[in-house]
Amino acid sequence: MSTRDVGCCLTIAGSDSCAGAGLQADLKTFMAHNIHGLSVVTVVTSQNSLGVQRVFGMPRIAVEGQLKSIIQDFTKDIDGIKIGVIFNEEIITAIASKLNEFRVARDDVPIILDPVIISSSGAVLLQPEATAQMVQNLTPIVTLVTPNIPEAVYLLKYFSVEQTINNIDQMKSAAKELQKHLKCKHVMIKGGHLSSSNASSPDVLYDGVDDKHHVFESEKISKNFTKTVDGLSISNWHGTGCTMSSAITCYMAKGVSVSEAVKLSKQYVRDAMENSYHIGGSKTTAQLNHNAQNKKFNL
Ligand code: PXL
Q1: Where does the record place the Pyridoxamine kinase/Phosphomethylpyrimidine kinase domain (predicted)?
Q2: Is the CB of 57 under 6 A from ligand 1?
């Protein structure tokens, strides 16, 4: 971290036209943490509160061009990097080659990958044939990978590990197994999809450097947990995964340990959910409030 009092993080992610997820969620999260956000666009999605209608991947040259401009000018400024939607082989190749260049000068910068595979409405955000490229060239240079349960199951299956994840013990073994195969430093599995009857949503971190598990318990942040927002019974908060991984990026950029960063980011997401509001046609989806800390200044 430099002596300036504003941090600087980069998000390499997809654009969400309703600005609840993707790079828009990342930039809001960065700003709420007093961090200047840089952004590289990988895909442009057409979406609204009802779902994702279209996904347009950027050409490789466009991703490379953005990263080249950022690296040329901001290499010494960047404190953390978050990666979201990476979509296809050519985009992953561009990201991996440019980040390898960046890492020659800055191998101290934490890189957090949220392995987004499919949107809640079913749109493909990682083409199946691109998984190989991701695990060969990208995850080995990543500090922390943050799958949710379906993503963890999908990735384990790619490595021929057939595992169901229904409880904390299975989350623990899955996180450790994934860390070994993905060759990243740490894996954190988000428990929002855990099909348990209780209201707990545990996240499990496997710290591959210290060979240690950390379990973070909290009230459920998931589809089964409903809350009344603006008179509607809300069961879905769009962009919680993006927000959590970008909040972790902020805390790690500030020099906080990976386990402390996960704990703090859970609280940030919780506050944004508690203060959420409703727009658009969906009767079950609310928007995260990234301004929760400043609510008292609202007019
Ligand atoms: O929430 C995952 C996600 C990330 N990034 C973009 C998305 C979505 C889900 O729809 O559209 C751009």
Answers
A1: 16-283
A2: no
